[in-house]
Structures are given as C-alpha cells and as structure tokens.
Specification:
126 residues; globular; single chain; 0% helix
Length: 126
Amino acid sequence: QVQLLESGGGLVQAGGSLRLSCTASGGTFIRYTMAWFRQAPGKEREFVAAMFRNTGRTYYQDSVKGRFTMSRDNAKNTIYLQMNDLKPEDTAVYYCAADDTIIFSNMRNTRGYDDWGQGTQVTVSS
C-alpha cells in the first residue's frame, strides 16, 4: 500500500493553468500505475489520465487531450498533472490514485485502484 498526497489545486480563470502534484510514500513507486481522476459536484468520479507502470505510456480522457499533460518523476516519487487552457467544466476535486497490480483494461476504472489521495480542489471561473 502507498500513501498519496496531492497539492496544487486552486482557483483560476478560464484559459489559465495549474499544475497538480501527487507525492507517494510507503511503497516502491516505480511498480505503480499512477492515475488522476476527478469528481465534480453531483457527478461520479471520472478518469482523467494515467501512466501505466509497464510501458510508461500516458493515456488521457478525450476531453483533456491536448490541454493536460501527465508526467512522472521517479526520483521524487511524484506525478504531476499540468493543466492548460482550463475550462469551467474542469472544475472538480482531483484525486491521485495508484495500484501495483492493475491490468491495462482496468486503467480507466476507479475500482482498479487500491490507493487514493485525499483530493485537491480545482475551480475554474468563467
């Protein structure tokens, strides 16, 4: 099991940028598939991006492609989500997730992940 701590959320105007960070502790970081999910008020938690442990490739939800970039620094046990050209519909609590046994087909599914951070609020004003 790994502990996850997110940071970097805040209030930004539409078109602006934010960078989220998630630092892991208590596990062997390189073994984990890492992901970002988000949950808007009244909606289910949804997949945003993930970096699969075996390939290091990154996958994105269609609505954020070209605007969000996920990266990983194994030396710092940290992942990042650079969010550019933010839109009001990006407003949500953003969660970091990790799992060391998840299979590729489950990567976009919340139930595939055992470990979650506490979340960080991102609010985009119009």
